Amino acid sequence: MPLFDQFRGRRKSDSDPLANALADRSAALLERFDALVDALPVGVIVVGDDGRVTVFNPAAAEIFAVPRERAIGRTLIESVRSFELDRRLSNALRSGIEQTAELTHNVGSERRLEVTTRPLRGSELPREAVAVVHDITRVRELESIRRDFVSNVSHELRTPLTSVKIIVETLQGGVDAATQAEFLNDIARETDRMIALVGDLLGLAKLESGAPASPFGPVDLCEVCREVVATQALRAKQLNIDLQVRTPDDPIEIEGERTRLVQVVVNLLDNALRVTQPGGHVKVGVKRDDGHAQLYVSDDGPGIPSSALPHIFERFYVVDRSRARSATGTGLGLAIVKHIIELHAASVTVESELGVGTTFRCRFKIKI
Amino acid sequence: MGRENFHRILDETQQDVLRLGSLVEDATAKSVDALTRSDVKLADEICEGDDIVDDLCVRIETNCLNLLALQQPMASDLRTIAAMLDIIIDLERIGDHACDIAQITKNLATEPQLKPFIDIPLMATNAREMLRESLDAFAQHNADIAHKVPQKDDEVDRLYRAVFKELIEFMAKDPRAIGRGSNLILVALYLERIADHATNICERVVYMVEGVPKHLKRSVVEINQAIGQSEGLSTRSLGETAAS
């Protein structure tokens, strides 16, 4: 019989007040024990001597996507089909072995689990074993993102620094005036790249620190779009990309911080221009939409895989690292966009189809 | 061996079948994961794990034969034992296919990737889902689930055709891609076979529960009619593939 279960459902005796008091006390303890296990944020599974599950808390049910009713009373392998977990619990039960391991378990998507299995010491015979399961999927994802980010930033900083070093060494060796001017331009360009990267990092840190923004004021989104497109027109032309801006004649005003809204359009447009092939098209525009202002940036680039869509606004997430590296992406642009949009109590969404293109839409409340 | 002992061993053997299913399901997932990430270490682990699959198969088979020889089971118990003897053959083959994919991963590890992996991981996801549900049907002795699972095989077949056609086009354009392309066609074929094995398991579950043998996999002609297009492949060549 599982731990404590000998006290469950015990009937009260009419003639023995002490037994009744003990039964009440046991019932209260059991209730407290159940509530405690249910409240734990980690999965807890207990199997009895016969291998059947006696405790399966809500966190375990969520981690393994198995309803508690389906797990209780059955052997673990019948409900949670994890050979490794089953084997480790069996080892704990039969041989008293305590183990901690990282397992993968797939229930629709892959989950990384840190599982500790051990015999329940101190319990009376028959024996029981417990598995404590931490879902560390998110932790592993963040570690991976951090590694990618460090790798990206290191690369992005090292590349221009290496260029600058080589150019400086060449200049020290002595070159003619024309070459000197050309090299100085190269140094300026590489320095700009580094400043942009450091600027992105600082900008994001500032946004995340919750530092107060400048006071909001009326901002005409049409004018913001036209201004940003004008600054990028030459670049688009050099890339042979057709860049169009579509705004109504009347202004569409929202309450916001102009500098940061400009940065939203700059980041979205910069992304679009980086992924669009020569001969492609990029559109930037604003329109009224059901009492809201909708700012959109669309391209007919390669599109974003559906598996990447839920992650693109995460800090440091890069859809295709090799592509981003070649095109100077840091993985910060969209995270900055998301923060600024949230600052304006607005929303940003993305639609994308592989081989067709991508559209980002930001939806703001119109200033009344 | 008393009757109580008989039911205990029968229960334990059914749990062993589920353990075997869990192992090969995991191996299938890892094999495609190793392929897409060119992870040779993981591929090695998958091949090493095949020994556990074989040992488990022997244990289940021995238990089933002992039960048959010593207990003369009847009715549903007899059908359950007969079903398990069939199911472990399918599961063992799935384990072999996972190992085959791992071997291809090792072969391709030093070669540049031919194309982004899109349809093959999708095939693997569908095939694994079918396998998981077929094992759910077995675990719960549920013929309704078993009847539904084979319907998903059409999608796996469609993806197989798409991968096959695309890779043939790659190889026709660039003969240097023939080695990599033919290996990837084999991977797609193994995944298509895994889905077929899941359908076989469902057929055994239906027999186990209802006592009537049923053929759940649709014929090639029915599949072609459902898809409504040949996509450049003759019925004959598809028939040969499906029967391989």
Please, could you describe this protein's structure?
The longest helix of chain A has 36 residues, at 137-172. Helices cover 47% and strands 22% of the residues of chain A. With 368 residues, chain A is of the alpha+beta class. The radius of gyration of chain A is 30 Å and the shape is elongated. The relative contact order of chain A is 0.08. The termini of chain A are far apart. Mean pLDDT of chain B is 85; it is low at 230-244. At the A-B interface, α4 and α5 of A face α1 and α4 of B.
Taking all Cα atoms into account, the compactness measure Rg of chain B is: 19 Å
Question: How many separate helices of chain B?
Answer: 9
Q: Provide a count of the helices of chain A.
A: 11
Shape of chain B: elongated
Quote the distance from N terminus to C terminus of chain B: 43 Å
Mean pLDDT of chain A comes to: 85
Strand segment count of chain B = 0
Mean pLDDT, all residues of chain B: 85
Main sheet properties of chain A: 5 strands, antiparallel
**In which order are the strands of the major sheet of chain A placed?**
2-1-5-4-3
Q: Give the helix level of chain B as a range of percent.
A: over 70%
Indicate the topology.
The complex is a heterodimer of chains A (368) and B (244).
Chain A: H1 17-39, E1 43-47, E2 53-56, H2 58-64, H3 68-71, H4 76-79, H5 83-95, E3 99-107, E4 109-119, E5 129-135, H6 137-172, H7 177-208, E6 217-220, H8 221-238, E7 242-246, E8 253-256, H9 258-275, E9 281-289, E10 292-299, H10 321-326, H11 333-343, E11 347-353, E12 357-365
Parallel strand pairs in A: 7-9
Antiparallel strand pairs in A: 1-2, 1-5, 3-4, 4-5, 6-8, 9-10, 10-12, 11-12
Chain B: H1 3-37, H2 40-71, H3 75-108, H4 119-140, H5 143-148, H6 153-173, H7 178-210, H8 220-227, H9 235-243
